[in-house]
Write a structure and sequence with these properties.
The structure is a homodimer of 247-residue chains. The first copy, chain A, is 27% helix and 25% strand. By secondary structure, chain A is an alpha+beta fold. Chain A has 2 domains: 40-174, Nucleoside Triphosphate Pyrophosphohydrolase (Alpha-Beta Complex), CATH 3.90.79.10; 188-246, Winged helix-like DNA-binding domain superfamily/Winged helix DNA-binding domain (Arc Repressor Mutant, subunit A). In chain A, the strands form 2 sheets. In chain A, strands 1, 2, 3, 4, 5, 6 and 7 form a 7-stranded mixed sheet that branches. A two-stranded antiparallel sheet of chain A has the order 8-9. In chain A, strand 8 (221-228) and strand 9 form a beta hairpin. At the A-B interface, helix 1, strand 1, strand 2, strand 5 and strand 7 of A face helix 1, strand 1, strand 2, strand 5 and strand 7 of B. The structure holds a DNA duplex (27 and 27 nucleotides).
DNA sequence: TGAATAGTGTCTTTCAGACAATATGCC
DNA sequence: GGCATATTGTCTGAAAGACACTATTCA
């Protein structure tokens, strides 16, 4: 204890020496002149949905070197005046024509050698979209795009297998302490729909009674005065987010 | 449902068209020629410790434009062949001469305009170090360095106040479901030491009995056959990580 | 009326949190 | 012996998990 740099008691003081305006100008020039080798920065987007009771991810087929013939997470360069999240949303819209959905930064991958062309640092986002918004085929500037269950992935380019592992792991974690799961459903849904989303992400079956008990006890759902008929059996009640919980 | 790109059933197929070798070569040339404006990439490290019962962060004083005279999170450029984490560890060692401590990536900040000089994308790491390892004064290539309680910060450069907010929030979250708190203690410690770390990070007092009960019930601690004398009162028992839990 | 899914309650265990008295070592 | 901190247990409420039968609608 007490062997660190400066005593904390002086926390309110100002730093000692400061540039004069001339020094500041000189330092700015030095900065601009410093020819640091700049890596390429890309943003990739892991686009996820739940279809057929499974968590699926949208991948694009690579037609060019390197890793031609393999599947990859869609992504691209960040524009000079574009925020990272804006770049991620642009990529998402290019692939799916979908806007205004949940998107969140996941992690940044930047090991040298992960791209054989040059040093590339990739900021990865993940997006959750509802299967029923997927009216439009993925726009494929990469030539070909397809959905894959995240538990049965094809060979992937770059370090993308690791990225998807990490995405899934993070999603499972977030499911427990956020309402992230609702991002994968339309505005009105049955409790069975919601349970299917949870089961798809957690990759294991859940007890129906305990699940309903837990979800309803949070008080964030309200019953819609309607039901969904889906075959020769009792229709299920529809729910939606509590207007108070919408934020 | 079922309106997405390609049917999942075909997940095992190969992508259709692939470059010929000539096309691949051409495409590589296109790639190299594409004069994308590359942003600068820096790595900043939030260096944290617990001193005097408070969570404190190491900041450096800026002497140059912009934000001269304000305090900032230490950081620097990433070397061309250096991984992001290696860059973070290098920065940490430059500031504290400390190596081999817990370090983890936090988030990447890249809004245009966050640095008035040029487009800068900053990958932020945070490091947890034990106060008793701080024998050596921070090497200050930025001129001046000092510890500040994270709850009483001075005016900060760039978007660094936001970064520290986020760091603290993440640390509080991780404390609950990881053993991250132990990173701030030496190999042998008293239960009161550990409680002090938790209280510093959570910024609130904890009940002694409940805390000890919870920590001991995990079974990751084992008693050391020794105690720490610290005044005219009963000495406290020392504990350490269970050898099984070391991993 | 049969098929298929919707909907419901109890018990047990675990965990978190509130709460105060005794034990021990040092001076 | 007095001081200062270490150490310890009970009760209560909340939440999680195991477990199986009845209800409803449609074809």
């Amino acid at each position: 204890m007490g062997t660190g740099a400066e005593p904390t008691q002086e926390a309110a003081r100002e730093p000692g020496r400061v540039d004069s305006p001339e020094e500041a100008e000189a330092s700015r020039k030095r900065y601009d002149a410093s020819a640091y080798e700049r890596p390429s920065v890309t943003v990739d987007v892991v686009i996820l949905t739940v279809r057929n009771g499974r968590l699926e991810v949208l991948l694009v087929a690579r037609r060019h070197w390197p890793f031609e013939g393999m599947w990859a997470i869609p992504g691209g360069f960040v524009g000079p005046k574009e925020s990272l999240e804006a770049a991620a949303r642009r990529e998402l819209e290019e692939e799916t024509s979908v806007r205004d959905v949940f998107i969140e930064q996941l992690y940044t991958f930047g090991d040298p050698g992960r791209d054989p062309r040059t040093r590339v640092i990739t900021v990865v986002y993940y997006a959750l979209i509802r299967a029923d918004t997927l009216r439009i085929r993925a726009a494929d500037d990469a030539g070909d795009a397809a959905w894959f269950p995240i538990s049965e992935l094809p060979p992937l380019a770059f370090d993308h297998a690791r990225i998807l592992d990490y995405t899934w792991q993070r999603l499972r974690g977030k499911l427990e302490y956020t309402t992230i799961g609702y991002q994968l459903l339309s505005r009105e849904f049955t409790l069975r729909d919601l349970q299917a989303v949870y089961e798809a992400i957690l990759n294991r079956p859940l007890d129906k009674r305990n699940f309903r008990k837990k979800v309803l006890s949070t008080g964030i759902l309200e019953r819609v005065d309607d039901s969904r008929k889906a075959g020769p059996h009792r229709p299920a009640a529809l729910y939606r987010f509590n207007s108070a919980a919408e934020q």
